[in-house]
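re: that chain from earlier
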Amino acid sequence: MAKQKPHINIVFVGHVDHGKSTTVGRLMYDSGNIDEQAMRKLREKAEELGKKGFEFAFVMDNLKEERERGVTIDLSHKKFITNKYEYTVIDAPGHKDFIKNMITGASQADVAFLVVAAKEGIMAQTKEHAWLCKTLGVGQIGILVNKIDTVDYKEDAFNKVKTEVLHLLKTAGFKPDTVPVIPISALQGDNVFKKSTKMPWYTGPTLAEQLDLFKEPEKPTNLPLRLPIQDVFNITGIGVVPVGKVETGIMKVGDKIIVVPAREGNGVQGEVKTIEMHHEQVQEAIPGDNVGFSVRGIGKKDIARGDVLGHITNPPTVVSEFTAQIVVLNHPTVLTKGYTPVFHIHTAQVACQFIEIQKKLNPATGEVLEENPDFIKTGDAAIVKLKPTKPLVIERQKDIPHMARFAIRDAGLTVAAGICLDVVKK
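^ sequence. v structure.
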């Protein structure tokens, strides 16, 4: 069996209509991931809908409604294999009302490409997306200056946008000198998969070449073990088999573990007997591994989805309150003290009450706009204090960022997203 290539999640973000979907479609097509026949169908469909030139975008835009509106509504995932890596491409929406998906996308992305149109440059959402990528822990970022054909492939037009965007990323907390900036035309196919002949002044990599230049995300093996439980099975002859994905740390056969909150919040302890991955027994599991494992000393009724496993020597943090930084993405009215929506944190879903809104922030810069505001609304960022309605495992961003992110949902909508800054241990 060939050794699997390292896996990287990549998200394409940026203002609406700056060409994210077209860029991804062009990459897929020029690299042979989509055949000519499928492309021809999309081209005909695009012309039929009066959207000539949108055929590449349609590669990612699977929903009928998206095709008719010409915008991306939901996340679509596509595999893209390079020489070095296996990428999962998450195409994230730029539209304001769809930014919720951008959150669910970015929070699982290791790498982001920020797409900026050469003519328009930085727009409102370009700023928000840059800041969100940072807040949600996207480690590496690249810039695609798209639609370079609309400025006649001119170097000075490219440099102007490049300078602006690098400055923006610096304010968001990225190191500008590590950020690649690539001039492309997704529609014409320049510098996406094929090197352009129209920009002799640019000597850097194409988008496809850059994909091999990103670093493999470091697996957080040195952090404490955290494995959120997804499911618990009772298998005849083996016993209780919990299933889940290792987020951080390493779990080995023979480890003494604790699962919390479990049983009324006190946790249950046991020992790892066996670990199985892809139907094979393994001796250890590392971050990213989806495993089933059998445990001595834990009954089927003891643990459930949303509980988190760790070593007895460093148990997961169960909190009675926590402070978080959130971005309100989509709320019909306003959020005030007392509001109690459902928080989705790792595999847990727990209602949490807003006890205090401490600060309102500028979503594009993070600066404090107001102390103790009465309410916050869509588009606002804030620091808030929250109280879970039942014991909950969450970690501080500075300790274990992978266990600090969450989405807030209410009546089928993602209302907000955020990250835990501080906790009051139960």
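The chain has three domains: 7-213, 227-311, 318-425.
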